[in-house]
Specification:
The chain is an alpha/beta fold. The protein has helices at residues 18-24, 41-61, 74-87, 103-113, 132-138, 161-171, 242-278, 306-312, 333-337, 342-346, 359-380; strands spanning 6-7, 68-71, 94-98, 118-122, 143-147, 174-178, 197-201, 212-216, 283-285, 296-301, 316-317, 348-352. The strands form three sheets. A seven-stranded mixed β-sheet has the order 2-8-7-6-5-3-4, sandwiched between helices. The chain is globular, with a radius of gyration of 21 Å. The model has no long low-confidence stretch (mean pLDDT 95).
Length: 381
């Protein structure tokens, strides 16, 4: 383990918390029942565990368990919300979203164009913030939905969801937020935000991979996209991943208990990283002037070859952007939308801290990054 790189890519995924794993284990062996088997105790136990997890997730989000629909991922949840609403939209075919959204939103909206959908892709300012005035100006009679994420997965920049939710309620359009990166990291009350839908994923908050959820204010708002048994109130057929769901729920409960203290600790580490690296000069902290998640820093370095930079950071597990885009060799669409050149976008690092990040790890990481940057700049002289 000591030879492994220092892990600073918590926005890509998180390790399963040992407390979460302990809660999951019985549901692989002793309590292995199908939650849809309502004729015997094995099924009853599984059903009860799923119900408990719904309530744990809902409690974290300030809503009721009956409004939580389990999926395989946040990506599936987003697809269910957007496509499922579009299928029942009638004459409304217009969706408003933002140029810095996750590809799960952008690609789904793009797909709906082939089905007669119209998409308004709004720009952001240089700190990655969307303008409520731009949203208001884009809303028209045919507008079905506004999709705005809570926190950007690459920069950690937070949007004002309260403002967006209030506007959507006033104008009578649906509001979907991808809360994947913020859930369990900052306080979120979906009821107060007037959200109709919100998508999140277990593996971003120390739960297992392969489990997601969609908050749905009113189940009548969407049509199912997967058929075959009528599970999840008919919205998402398929045998439920009971161990994963148990882990998801427990992860939300743990996050709720320590969210504030963890956020304060990680914000101090993030600020230390930025203050130390800013001494190098000729760099940009992307979204620095905006409200951000406490554990995320995205930094672009002038006069640096991005590919060489990543190859030189062998002792660190960091990224240049979203894990979902890592197979595509192109500059970050998020940073480009914020006005960065291709060169600067390529020469960027996303550092995302987490529950197991230590001060020692952060100090070593800063030393490594400084050394690599200084060395590469010296070679340019």
């Amino acid at each position: 383990m000591s030879n492994q790189p220092i892990y600073l890519d918590y926005n890509a995924t998180t390790p399963v918390d040992e407390r979460v794993l302990e809660a999951m284990l019985p549901y692989f062996t002793q309590k292995f029942g199908n939650a849809a088997s309502i004729q015997h105790s094995f099924g009853w136990d599984a059903e009860e565990a799923v119900s408990t997890s719904r309530d744990q997730i809902a409690s974290l989000l300030g809503v009721k368990g009956q409004n939580i629909v389990f999926t395989s991922s946040a990506t599936e949840a987003i697809n269910l919300a957007i496509q499922g609403t579009f299928d029942l939209s009638g004459k409304k075919n217009h969706i408003i979203t933002c140029s810095t959204e996750h590809k799960a939103v952008l690609d789904t909206c793009e797909h709906l164009k082939s089905k007669g959908g119209e998409v308004s892709l709004l720009n952001v300012d240089t700190d990655g913030r969307i303008s409520i005035t731009d949203i208001l100006d884009a809303i028209k009679e045919s507008t079905l939905m506004v999709c705005v994420m809570s926190a950007n997965n690459e920069t950690g920049v937070l949007q004002d969801l309260q403002e967006v939710g209030n506007l959507c309620q006033e104008k009578g359009v649906h509001f979907l937020s991808d809360i994947t990166q913020s859930a369990g990291k900052i306080a979120t009350n979906l009821h107060d935000l007037n959200a109709d839908f919100a998508a999140l994923s277990s593996h971003k908050l120390y739960g297992p991979k392969g489990v997601g959820a969609l908050y749905v204010r009113d189940m009548k708002l969407i049509a199912p996209q997967i058929f075959g048994g009528g599970h999840e109130k008919g919205l998402r057929s398929g045998t439920l991943n009971v161990p994963g769901i148990v882990g998801f729920g427990h992860a939300c409960e743990v996050a709720s208990d320590q969210m504030d203290a963890e956020g304060d600790r990680l914000a101090k580490l993030r600020d230390y990283i930025e203050s130390e690296l800013l001494q190098l000069g000729d760099l940009i902290v992307n979204g620095e002037k905006a409200n951000r998640l406490p554990h995320v820093s995205n930094i672009s370095f002038e006069d640096i070859d991005g590919s060489r930079l990543m190859r030189s950071l062998k002792g660190l597990a960091v990224s240049q952007g979203s894990a979902c885009n890592s197979a595509v060799i192109e500059p970050s669409h998020v940073l480009k939308a914020m006005g960065l050149s291709d060169r600067l976008a390529y020469a960027s690092l996303r550092i995302s801290l987490g529950r197991y990040s230590t001060e020692e790890d952060v100090r070593k990481a800063v030393q490594t990054i400084r050394s690599v940057i200084e060395q590469q700049r010296m070679q340019l002289l």
